[in-house]
Structures are given as C-alpha cells and as structure tokens.
Amino acid sequence: MIKSFEDLEAIRNSKRAELDLRVNSNYSGIERHILVCHGTGCTSSNSEHILENFNNLIKEKNIENVRVVKTGCFGLCSKGPIVIIRPDDTFYSHVKPEDCEEIINTHILGGQKVERLLCKDVDGSVVNKLDELPFYKKQVRIALKNCGVINPEDIDEYIAFDGFKALQKVLTEMSQEQVIETILNSGLRGRGGAGFPTGKKWDFVRIETDPEKYVVCNADEGDPGAFMDRSILEGDPNCILEAMAIAAYAVGAHHGYIYVRAEYPIAVNRLRIAIEQERAYGLLGKDICGTGFDFDIDIKLGAGAFVCGEETALLESAEGKRGQPRVKPPFPAHAGFMQHPTLINNVETYANVTRIINQGAEWYSSIGTEKSKGTKVFALGGNVNNVGLVEVPMGTTLREIVFDIGGGIPKGREFKAAQTGGPSGGCIPAQYLDVSIDYESLAEIGSMMGSGGLIVMDDSKCMVAIAKFYMEFIVDESCGKCTPCRIGTKRMLEMLTKICDGEGEPEDLDKLQKLAQTVATASVCGLGQSAPNPVLSTMRYFRDEYEEHVRDKSCRAGECKALSQVTINEELCRGCDLCKKVCPVGAIEGDVGQKHRIDQSKCIKCKTCVNTCPFHAIK
Amino acid sequence: MDGENCENCVAMRAREETLEMASKYPKAKDNLMAILNDIQVKYGYIPEPSQAAVAEYLDIPLAEVYGVITFYSRFTTIPKGKYDISVCLGTACFVKGSSDLLERAKSKLGIDEGQTTDDQMFSLETMRCVGACGLAPVFTVNDKVYGNATVKLMDEVIDELKNQG
User: Fold this and answer.
1) pLDDT tens across A64-85, in order?
2) ipTM of the predicted structure?
3) Which of A308, A502, A535, B87 is an S-S bond match for A562, by CB 3.0 to 4.6 Å?
4) Alpha-carbon span A309 to A260, nearest angstrom
5) Which domain holds residue A585?
6) Those residues with Cβ within 8 angstroms of residue A179's Cβ, 6 or more apart along the chain or in another chain
C-alpha cells in the first residue's frame, strides 16, 4: 500500500534505473532484456511458448543479467511473433519457439546477431536496428508510448516510466478548472470518430450539480479491422486507468466503468490485473495517496454488438439492457449511466491525457494541424505490406501512411482505395492520396476519421462488392430501433446484391442513392446516419464500376462471381489435365495432351483450377 | 430412468449452478450481462432453466432476459459443437479472401453459419475481427487462431479434427 506520493516516487526512482536500458541506447551495462510481444497477433502465433522457452533456457544454462519480458504490441503485426533485444535494439521477426536456443547461444552468449531472423524490410534489406525500419521512422508515439516498452502486467514498470506523475500533479497542484483548461487548450478531440473537443465534454459534466457522477471508458471497439484500442489496453492498461482517475477528479466523479468487448480476452485480463494492482497500491479506492480523493473502476463486458460503440447504446448495455441508442438530448453529460451525469471517452482519447498533463497543453497543440491536434493511431490492414499499428501526427498524408510506413502494395499491384472509419466511413480513391489526415479533410472527401481502422485495397477489389460487404455488416448489426436503419439498410443490401449478381437495372443506381440519403438523414443515432457512407462514397468515386455492373454485366476486378468468367487460354494450355482433376463440378473438358476448355454452364467460378494450373493458363 | 441425466435433473442442476454463479454479483439489474457471460462461458450456450434462474435472481421478467440474450451475438440459446469454427469476416480478413474460407467450411461440414452438425461435433460461426489483422485471413477453432489461412488449411484442420473425434 502506498500512503503518499513520496512512496510512489521512491518506487519510480529505483525501478527506473533498472529499466533504463529499455529506452537508453547509450546504456553501457551488462544487462540484457529480451522483449517478447504478447499482443493478440503475436500471441495467436505462439509467443507465449517463445517466452517460456527463453525462460527455461536461461534457467538451464544459468545465464545471469538477462531478463525475459512480456510486452504489449510493437505494432508491426505482419512480422510477428516479434522478439526485441535491448539495449542493442535488435529486431527479430517471425520467431518460432525452436529459434530461442539459437538466439540465446549466438546473440546473448556469443554476442553475434542471428542473421537469418533479423527483420527484413519490404525491399529485402536486413534491418539491424529497430529505428532503422521505415515503418517506425515517420511515427510519433504518444498514445502508444509504453506499448512494447513495459510489461503491462507489472505496475512497477508503468510507475518507472512516469506512471501516476500526472495524477499526482492533478491531485496536488491543480484545481478541477485548471485540469479542464489544460485539456481544452491542448486541442484534444475525441478519438472515437466524431472528434468532439474533449475538454468541452469534461466541462459539461463538471458543471452538473448531481453529486453522483460517472466516468466511462468506451472500449467497445467494434469496427471490423480496427484494433487500436485493444492494443493500448493490452500494452499499457494503467495509462487508461490513470487518465480515468484524472478525468474523474476534473468532473467530480468517484466511480468509473470500462466497457470492453468480451471478445478481447487478453485486454480484459490485463485490465483486471492492472485494477487489482492499483487497488493493492492504494491508487484506486478510498483516499488515494492521502489526498482525500476517492475513485474506483469496474469492468463491464460487452457481448458483441457493434451498436454499443455508440455512447448512449453503450450506457443502455452497461445498465444490463439491449444496446439500443437513446434519443439525444438529454446527452450523457446530463443524464447518462443510471440517469446520472456521465463522461464517456474512447480509449485512445484517454491514452493522450497523462502526456498532456505531464508535458503541457502547448507541447501537445504544437503537434498536428490547425484544427486537429496531436496524433492518431491507425490499424493499417488489407492489401499493404506492413500490416500493423501506426501512430502518426495529424496532417500526415495517406500516401505517407500507405507507401512510406506501410511499405506499399504487395505483389506489384496498384493502389485502388483506402477505407477509413469502418462501416461508418468511406473509401478514399487514389486521387486523394495526398490529402491530409485530419477530421475536416476526411469529412470533406466523404469519409471520416473514425476510430482508426485503415484498410488498403488493391485493384483486385471490386468497389461494389466492398459496399455490399459493409452493408451486410450494418444489416447484421442494426439494433432495429428506428425504421430507416432497420429497413432501409436491408433494402439497400438487396439492391447491392442484385447488382453484384448481374441482375441490376439502370434505375437501381438512383434508387440506391436516394435511399442512402434517406437513411443518412432520418436515422436516430450516429451509426444509422453514417451507415450509408460506404455506399455513397463508392458511388461518388467509382460510379463507373457500378454502371459497368448494371449496364455491361461485368465486374472489372473479377470479384463478383456471377459477372466473371473463368476461361482457359488455349495458347498456354499444355493439356496436363490437372484442372480437370481438381474441378469439383466436372466443368472442364478435354483429353490429356489436348487443349482444355470450360463449360460455362457448369462452372461455379470457385477458381480452384486457376490456382492449380502450373502454366497460369486459366484466368 | 437414469437418475443423473433425466431431463428434470439436468434442468435442476443448471438452475442451481446458475444461481450459484449469479450469487457472486449483487442483485442489481446492471449485472445481467456479466452473469449471462459467465453462463455462456460455462455451458457454451444459455440453457432455458438458466434464463429463468437469472430472471428470478435479478427479479426481472424472463422476457427481458431473453430479449438481452437475443440482442447480443455472443450469447446463444443452442449448444455449440465440440469444435466451434469461427471465420473472421472483418474488413482486413474479407479483403484477403475470408469469404472463400467460410464457403469451404459450409460445404465441407454441410451446415450453414449459426448451425451445429447433427453429431454435435462442429458448429460454424462468423465473427467480426478478433484483432489479429496482421495474420489475415484468420479463422478460429474454439480459442485457437489459425492465421494466413487458405482453403487448403481449412480442409486440413477440419479433416484432422474429424479424425481426432
């Protein structure tokens, strides 16, 4: 139990010296730390086993001065499982449990890097040190500063890297108004997608007179393809808890909830550990560090409903009801959880708070653009070489993210579009690659910042099929409360299906657009209002593809199976007969040694033959 | 009659176990989701006697409990198979061809999504993002994640599980 902030300072100082080698590349001591990524991606490919092997080897060989550390996500998920050796910053990628012995023998004991495991850049060049990788060069890590640096299950490591300094400053030196002013001046805006000024939101709750107020963290990250919040919770859970305590002090609340998806078991578990450790230290609970401030946090588990990311639906769900959005006003700041004033912020928003308090509003507002301050974390995925988590200053261009950080498009294909904002956002075509990533610029071109999913699509993707994909998602996830969203999106999906199946009629396109506009205007909540965005933005930039589907019954990307034909190029066919053998429906004719052909009336376009043909004769 | 497995005995046991699980939480309605989650984890679905027991414990109508269960995709009212195969249809996986994985699993198992095979061995689900987008496309069997998946891998995994029994 920590009784005062002096006790905390003592832990920080002793621990910081011990962990110095994690961040100090001039460290000259003999200690080595082997960091093993334990984010969801790397854990899925067996990083727990790697950690265990390292520990066993160190015990067996009686190696001293080496510590194996479990950390959060390093960001470059496509290279996982990742192992980093500090202080020499060696970056090993695609490590397998059986590689541990070689790393110990060659690197730790022999002092030589294991060449074959060193990470390679997109062009094939070997990367000796972490910061040489282009993937990291343009990134600025604020929200992710501790991810991949500390052990998220050890509160002492968090304390060592300035943990609870901000809380101390707030509780001992600042008034509620001063805290809010600092957040306001920093220019921080909600990172959940809408971008409302965070300081204003805090002030709305502060001025309420109801003595019972709540602070809520929205960790219901439901956008498919987005995993920023999960990575922060997995890599640095205490930073969210500390920020919630700061927010609670500023608005006058004494209880907080984290609403997190049950589909994120690792994040939930690390949050539980962090809460327990903070309680044991007295950093949560009654009279925190002798300041007289009481604050505690509990976890609420979500159960797989996308709509619960909408703040009022989240509140309904947290109260144990069906997650259907409420009509606003009243806003949660006035009548939120159990009808009491409630502050709701997204995970990434909270992740910026401690840094703003520690380093000042001026420092934070010096990063980013005029209206969008600070950084934004993106989950970069899809058809891009470096899939992973990136944090860039606002104002960075899409081109920089996709080509410099993301390493471009694999297999020499062309960039076609990037999708931001998930099912609420839109597709950005190549002509806007140089647009600045900030709230206003993205809205202008018909997309939105969203929570941070950024999916890159190459020219093999059909934009009508993508719109249909998102509409399927929305139809699944619509809560059913209001008619435009419940029925409108269903009808939109039917039209899109018709178009993809080659049965579209010319007037369908106008009907689709009109209906999309109605759904956008008349739905109750933000999700319904933004549900047509994927359709509207693809119609705006890829109208010709829609028209081809309807008029020519063709899909240039070849994704819409009903509109594509699989054919054999007779010049390339050698009559090896392999395609005939693998065809599940017997649609291929021809004798061995003769040219083969496909009976289009039988073909189901499964493309098994395309992948089988050794001469690439089938397309 | 088999004393351990008669229908009433099973129902009674589910009720008792449910009440015991629920007793960890105060009798406040906002704990409904947490209790349902525990039941789902324990049984792999939420059996009818458990639904009634939860309604009784929290003193709310059974219809309300049922309404909550059917709203959230994580809660189910039919038992899952021994191997629960779940194909990710998140955007990152979709873009990398996960719908082909789903089609293959459907045709190989002869069931649609949301269904369980008659022998109770396999159930098939879709999900939206496990967050392993770096490994896209992925599918999971129970808690194990299969990354960079292909139709061939799906075949192999299902065949292997069939052999294991």
Assistant:
1) 999 999 999 999 988 989 999 9
2) 0.88
3) A502
4) 10
5) 565-619
6) A170, A202, A246, A249, A250, A357
